[in-house]
Design brief:
The structure holds 2 protein chains of 2 kinds.
Chain A lengths: L3 E4 H11 L4 E4 L6 H10 L7 E4 L3 H13 L4 E5 L1 H16 L4 E7 L15 H5 L10 E3 L4 H18 L2 E7 H5 L1 E4 L26 E2 L6 H22 L2 E4 L6 E4 L3 H15 L4 E6 L1 E3 L3 H10 L2 E6 L5 H9 L5 E5 L8 H12 L1
Parallel strand pairs in A: 2-3, 2-4, 4-5, 5-7, 6-7, 11-12, 11-14, 14-15
Antiparallel strand pairs in A: 1-8, 6-13, 10-12
Helix pairs in contact in A: 1-2, 1-6, 3-4, 9-12, 10-11
Chain B lengths: L23 H14 L6 E5 L7 H4 L3 E4 L5 H11 L4 E7 H7 L1 H9 L5 E6 L2 E2 L5 E2 L18 H4 L5 H5 L5 E8 L3 H19 L4 E7 L3 H4 L3 H15 L3 E5 L10
Parallel strand pairs in B: 1-2, 1-3, 3-4, 4-8, 7-8
Antiparallel strand pairs in B: 5-6, 7-9
The chains are: A alpha/beta, B alpha/beta.
């Protein structure tokens, strides 16, 4: 397969097609526009593929619910305000154990915010967002290549666990161009989806539902979900360690911020500061044990995010008071410069 | 011996939870009969609403999905676009379809989604215990309009068949009631026609059923039937509003 120069949003779209996504429902919002427009162009050319611009974000996620119930690999994409509107549907999809992929190319918030890159939807993605005790598998790529790779993984994980998977990117990642090679592909296996509502031919009807008025029953449903989440935690944590072998100071960053952090690690090493990078790739399940392990060896952590400090809470839980955990971030769509991060590192290392 | 009447195969044996005198049970049966008659049971996917009919998935002996409040037409759109050869219906009440789900209803209709919507209009929120519905008629008392619905304060009852029949995507729209045996026969015919509309791939079909809610209207069942016929039909005239293929009469006759 040849390497191509491609925009992040388009790489997700192309990769979704290669992963057997046949149904896309979305509503226009910046900065994920190119993703839907790519599919609007490409899906009608393919047999059995279907693209729809829905009347609202709410309708789009419910169309995903319907398409997934019928056994298709279905996807929607949006950004902050649109993802907020989808939360109701996401809670139902999680409750009904339906697979689907949701892309959030984050923008500055709260409210209408702006269209600049941000990571301020971490809590929303990782801690719930909608009502009830549920979890999304949250993948945080940091390059166009990884957007492509993780999109395929997202569809596979969604089907494997019958769970919604979110790809958490941001406006910068979605709109930057890098070389990409589509190495991975996958297929939908409808025959394995014996739970799907496709007509009760020669079997008892399938019911996709999240209403259990009897608390005894609903508790059992919840316990089953929790059991699944424990299984996901056991199997699917992903994390990148960079220069952590002898690191005294660990920078923890995800997504686009990890790129800036990596350059700072390199620069710090030249200056004689033994810095390393921990990059969670799955934000849920969160690689807590890896971070706890690092806490045994390092002197301090610096968490850096494009928000007011969200993932830092999970890092602090993992570190559990063993070492100091510092934070530096920027808000409202502003980028943290390598210089700012370097200054913070030097201050901590002093 | 010959069996003259039996329970439709498209209904389960589960006892229904509906109140005495409620119209839901009748409409469930009519729809189930139609599904049986067209031989569609094994290729049907139904979408249940939030509201009194939320448990419809227990009563229809077909594949069912329970949708978030008002979102049934969007869920049905997703299903139908994956399974265009299946029969897909939504079963929704007035709060679900004409208040919280208005956008989903209007846009599914406007897209001409090849779906069938069974719309129960009983002018009240039943499941939550009798609040104003978008279809509550003027001066009707409910728990949230204890002095009666007033146009200046609450706006006017929404006439869904009239509204949707202006849309090009809508192939069939008819308002019926189940207030008497004669009306039930007409309701059945409308439901059959709606099913047929979908099978012929003509587009969006809706049957609005004016249905009695004695519990939340605070009436005896017989009085409730009378109220449907004498009061509700003043605001919501019965009749066919659109039938692209058939010989539908125009506008509430």
């Amino acid at each position: 397969m040849q390497k191509m120069l491609m925009e992040g949003n388009e790489a997700v779209a192309e990769s979704a097609l290669r992963a057997g996504c046949t149904h896309y429902f979305g509503y226009p919002i910046t900065p994920q526009t190119e993703l839907s427009e790519y599919l609007a162009r490409e899906m009608p050319k393919r047999k059995d593929c279907f693209f729809m611009q829905a009347e609202s974000e709410i309708a789009a996620i419910n169309m995903v619910l319907g398409a997934s119930s019928a056994g298709a690999r279905a996807m929607t994409s949006s950004s902050g305000p649109g993802i907020s509107l989808k939360q109701e549907g996401i809670s139902y999809i999680a409750a009904c154990s339906l697979p689907c992929v949701i892309v959030n190319m984050e923008r500055g918030g709260p409210g209408l915010g702006n269209i600049a890159p941000s990571q301020a939807d971490y809590f929303q993605a990782v801690k719930g967002g909608g009502h009830g005790d549920y979890r999304l598998i949250v993948l945080a790529p940091n390059s166009v290549q990884e957007l492509a790779d993780l999109t395929v993984d997202a569809f596979d994980l969604a089907d494997k666990y019958r769970n919604p998977v979110m790809i958490l990117g941001d406006g910068l990642l979605g709109q930057m161009m890098e070389s990409v090679e589509f190495k991975k592909s996958s297929k939908n296996d409808v025959s394995k989806k014996t739970w799907a509502t496709r007509g009760a031919k020669g079997r008892k009807p399938n019911i996709i539902n999240s209403l259990y008025l009897n608390p005894v029953e609903l508790e059992q449903v919840n316990l089953k979900l929790q059991e699944k989440y424990r299984e996901i935690e056991k199997n699917e944590k992903r994390c990148e360690f960079y220069e952590m072998e002898d690191a005294e100071y660990a920078i923890v960053a995800f997504g686009i911020m990890s790129r800036i952090a990596k350059s700072v690690v390199n620069e710090a090493r030249q200056k004689g500061i033994k810095a390393g990078l921990i990059r969670p790739i799955t934000l849920w399940p969160f690689p807590s044990k890896k971070i706890a392990g690092a806490a045994e060896k390092t002197k301090a952590f610096i968490v850096t995010e494009l928000n007011a400090g969200q993932m830092v809470e999970d890092v602090r839980l993992a570190v559990n008071g063993k070492k100091p955990v510092h934070f530096i971030g920027r808000l409202g769509g502003m980028l943290l410069t390598p210089q700012q991060l370097m200054e913070k590192l030097e201050e901590v290392a002093k | 011996m010959k069996t003259l009447l039996k329970k439709p195969e498209s209904l389960t044996d589960a006892p229904m939870h509906y109140c005495p005198g409620c119209g839901h049970g009748i409409v469930h049966r009519l729809l189930a009969e139609a599904i049986d008659e067209f031989g569609l049971r094994e290729k049907t996917v139904g979408i249940a609403p939030v509201g009194c009919a939320v448990f419809a998935y227990n009563y229809f002996n077909v594949d069912m999905i329970e949708a978030p409040h008002g979102r049934a037409p969007a869920v049905a759109t997703g299903v139908k676009r994956v399974l265009p050869e299946n029969f897909v219906f939504t079963y929704q009440g007035d709060g679900d379809l004409a208040a919280i789900g208005t956008a989903e209803t209007v846009h599914a209709a406007n897209r001409g989604e090849n779906l069938t919507v069974i719309f129960i209009n009983n002018a009240i929120y039943g499941m939550t215990g009798g609040q104003m519905a978008p279809t509550t008629v003027l001066s009707q008392k409910t728990n949230t309009t204890p002095y009666g619905r007033q146009a200046a304060l609450h706006g006017y009852p929404i006439k869904i068949c009239e509204l949707l029949s202006t849309m090009e995507g809508v192939a069939f729209a008819e308002r019926v009631t189940v207030s008497s045996p004669a009306n039930i026969i007409k309701a059945k015919a409308a439901i059959r026609r709606a099913v047929e509309t979908q099978l012929n791939k003509e587009g969006f079909s809706i049957v609005e059923v004016l249905s009695q809610c004695p519990t939340n209207w605070g009436m005896k069942p017989l009085d409730a039937l009378k109220w449907v016929e004498e009061e509700m039909t003043k605001t919501f005239p019965l009749g066919n509003f659109k039938d692209k293929k058939g010989n539908g009469k125009k506008g509430g006759q």
